[in-house]
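HOLO CASE FILE
Compound: adenine
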Amino acid sequence: MFGVSPSMTLAILSALAEEQHGLVDAMQGMQCLRHAGRDFWLGRLHGHEVVCALSGIGKVAAATTTAALIERFGVRGILFTGVAGGIGAGVNVGDVVIARTFLQHDMDASPIFPRWQLPGYGCSTLACDEAATDRLVQAADSAVRSGIVASYASARVHQGLIASGDQFVSSRQASAQLRADLEAAGHAVLAVEMEGAAVAQTCLDYGTPFAAMRTISDRADDSAHVDFSDFVRTVASRYAQRVVLDFLRQTPAKKQAVC
Ligand code: ADE
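Model generated. Tokens follow.
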């Protein structure tokens, strides 16, 4: 993954501008290209050719950005950083979740197809690239253990299923219902957000490797909106920068390497 392909460029996709500032600031030889109503920041980061972009919020915006990254910039892999609401047991604010699989929690074409199944795909869950995800887990473990965010010294790294939908989940009842429904169908969900499954589906269509990390900003309950942007600036962006740096260090920059 993130190995041999005609293009050497890796994409780093973030949900929010606050998260990406540090990464864009650290780029060398940076230039901004506007395409499909979005800004794409091209340059070098830790020895890699990269393009940084904002996914936009929600599944359609994220799918459009992903298609543009693949079609226009020919990226060889996509790494997503963002925040999510924790809904799994023990998934707390300040923890980091690395996605192994994604599911669209608002996909429901029943009774024609089983709930959550993606029509035409024959499955409900979409897998992330295994090798890149392993590297992301290592990078996140090291970031969390280093205690870069002192106020979350007991933060943990989780890996598993993230559910995406066009909805900011902000009530205890809604998150408990979603978790119960998914668990009853055998889907042990860790977190909810609004873009990842769309990026995963687009990447599957194009055969582009994809990996994703999310820092837990809230518990998807009645106080989910509180201090959201403050959290992104002071916690999530610090993890994102550190984890992306570590991830890039472990990722082969040259064409000869395949993971
Ligand atoms: N991103 C961060 N928190 C979220 C929530 N509670 N619901 C959906 N997306 C989120």
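CASE NOTES: Confidence is low (pLDDT under 50) at residues 255-259. The CA atoms of residues 218 and 224 lie 5 Å apart.
CLOSED: yes
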